[in-house]
């Protein structure tokens, strides 16, 4: 009670003051960077004051409204409405700017290059028919001369056979006169399947396409064209991969777009060794353009292997490499996730593992032996069980005397997605301290069909847990480009368990889907700040505004706690700052920066 009264008071007072400054006096004081000559090098120190600063997502210490930044770090966090600050080095005047500050947000699971590529490809998300897909492809081809040649395939992402009424085929693309003969590779919404055109299929010599691929599926009904999971490895070598220059363009587009959403950093959930090298080169050589903090999980050239020659730890303020990504199974949408018991809507299958349990355990062992955090993609309850088995056996080796007071146990093993977990295994996660890396918008995208796949019992005890895993410091993210990267949509999905695009729950769940698993606003924000930081060994450094932390912050028009739940999903960030540099400023309709209230 008292806290919120203070909060309202400060809000009123500061907005009143800011209004006065902006309107009546135009500018009372100016923001003057203070330069200090230090043994030849210049250190810039600058202070910022806002109407409110939320230094930490849980504590609402609303008396704080200013901070000082030096060399990309916060060096002081303080409270000072409009008074002039003086210090020994000289005088610094600080303008109170309108806006409310949050710590910079992180996406705990995304794919940076793929997202950049997505921004430069055909958006098929939400398409409701094959005809709609063909029309989007035609529009793209018309506006991108040369697209679809043998060297420059048309790429797309976002189709879903459930919306199309069945699996698509190469013939469907070939039947369109405008698209006939073009090389195309279109990923399913969850990127676990890809749909290619006839010219791509024609690259295979007769008999080159095997009948079956272990851990994958070649769809043959109603016709050829779609390759899932491990079968995608047949297509990938044929695709003329973007070169480094093109990848640089993708990465810059991705960073810009992510900053727009309020993101200052992300966990890249699977980066090939050569791309890690590219990240290193670009971030070291073009620090001006590399504006996003990336925690990259190494993915060996050959999936689910140990590649010690590529296990190079690296750490700078903008790129950190010390983890590996392994894959236990596929996705729920295509019945690819590995279940203990068969699917409720397809009793003939319980999905498939991409790797067997003994290999998964051996790999986890090998990677943790070289000091890498092991992050396993696991969706189905069997995949999650095997991931936990693997972690347990690695921990037993690390801590032969038991887990209780084993100092070396700081492995922070993670399960990426952690979507469907048997209750027994949820209990084991707590015992072992396994971090769940959760995408709240996956829950709200899958809720329409999840119960059909899983049945009511598994759905209510195993699926898309959030609240009951809270003590494990969940990392929250979006899995962009699978879902949009906007963290406020993720926060909304976590808080309401409703779809952030429609504001709706599925039929029969209008008030939100299994809201017993919903998080509070603070808990959800934690997942995008402190949880993400902990999952990347960056606690105290990222996701918080305090002395010594990265000077990363986001400016909003209104304090978050003043927004209604429905406003939450539509939050538009005003500014994003990374390392004390403004990397995004929203423009109004006239192209002017939004400045004052
Ligand atoms: C697991 O897979 C590996 C590699 O594919 C294979 O060598 C091994 O025999 C398999 N183990 C079991 C128990 O199936
Ligand atoms: Zn992913």
Automatic annotation (TrEMBL):
Residues 99-584 form the Amidohydrolase domain. Signal peptide: none annotated. GO terms for molecular function: hydrolase activity, acting on carbon-nitrogen (but not peptide) bonds. This is Amidohydrolase YtcJ.
